[in-house]
Amino acid sequence: MTDELTETLQNIKVIAGVENVVLIQKDGLPVASAGVWFSKEEVFAVASSTCAIYGVARLIHGEFKYLLMESETSKVFLASLPNDPDFFLTITTAPRVNLAALFIEMKDSLSRISFLLRQHVDGRLPPLRSYSTDETSQVLRGFSVSEGQSSSYSTSRPIISLDRSQALTLRALLRQIHDSIPDIKSVFLSLSGGVRVSLEGFTNDRLAAMSFALHDSSERVVRTLRNSSLQTVLCEAGNTRHFTYAVPNGVFSMWVNREGQKLGLMRLLLKHYIDEIKRVLHAAEGMKPAVPDDLKELLLAGGAENGIVMARREP
């Protein structure tokens, strides 16, 4: 089966712009790969990183078809296998890749891969692989391309504060997007912390929080793989397309019916409105999250310096 899988993955690899193709088990274990890898550890790093975003996408959309993450230096493509939630395909590409050719080749290849797995795996999944802390650090160091410099993969998001004028401007832009693109199901901004700014006003809801988590997970994957900043995520599930765009201190999110839509025209329209939203949010004030002084005093009262006292009610 390994030779047949590798040949099928190689058919995708020969598309101009495609760099690597990996078949991955849903728990992060790579099954087969084709591409320009430098080491076996890099294959495992890609598998474990994309496994996280695959889990988030399935949590939001259930049986999604594919997810495309775009950054300044590359694209990362995740595709579900037909009727087989235990495996998915991850493809890394150059910034300029023929997506139309990739989608056409993927249609036949995914069915072929699913058939091979059903014939040979028969529900028997290989055991999980675990990493120690030292092994994990070593794998991440393998992605560093600059000698003598340390890389940091952590992100920090301040809390944003909008005045009335800025809030009304954002809602007006969302209204223009809603009126310009037909069959929009939902369009909103999910600011840091999952606070939703929509045409219905300011609300906290599960959809905003999960959209924020989808984009945030994708950003961590791209930073781990390419040390680059994520720009756009497109997730297609059934008859719905879910777009998320990076904006200052938050995420723009749009759910739209895919039937009868021209993807290129839609992305062109969105680029203009996203630029305007970024301009407004750049002008908004941001502050770092901090523990209030009274709460800090309560937590540190009666303990050693920089200590925390835990209190409980006696039964």
Q: What is the element layout, followed by pairings?
A:
Elements: H1 2-13, E1 18-25, E2 30-35, H2 40-61, E3 66-71, E4 75-81, E5 84-93, H3 99-120, H4 133-141, E6 159-161, H5 164-180, E7 184-191, E8 195-198, E9 201-204, H6 206-226, E10 230-237, E11 240-247, E12 250-257, H7 263-283, E13 285-287, H8 293-300
Antiparallel strand pairs: 1-2, 1-5, 3-4, 3-10, 4-5, 6-13, 7-8, 7-12, 8-9, 10-11, 11-12
Helix pairs in contact: 1-3, 2-6, 5-7
Give a written overview of the molecule.
The chain is an alpha+beta fold and 315 residues long. The protein folds into two domains: 2-141, Dynein light chain 2a, cytoplasmic (Beta-Lactamase, 2-Layer Sandwich); 159-287, Beta-Lactamase. 42% of the residues lie in helices and 26% in strands. The chain is built from eight helices and 13 strands. The chain has helices spanning 2-13, 40-61, 99-120, 133-141, 164-180, 206-226, 263-283, 293-300, and strands at 18-25, 30-35, 66-71, 75-81, 84-93, 159-161, 184-191, 195-198, 201-204, 230-237, 240-247, 250-257, 285-287. Strands 2-1-5-4-3-10-11-12-7-8-9 form an eleven-stranded antiparallel beta sheet, with helices on both faces. A hairpin with a 2-residue loop joins strand 8 (195-198) and strand 9. It is globular and about 60 Å long. The model is unreliable at 302-315 (pLDDT under 50).
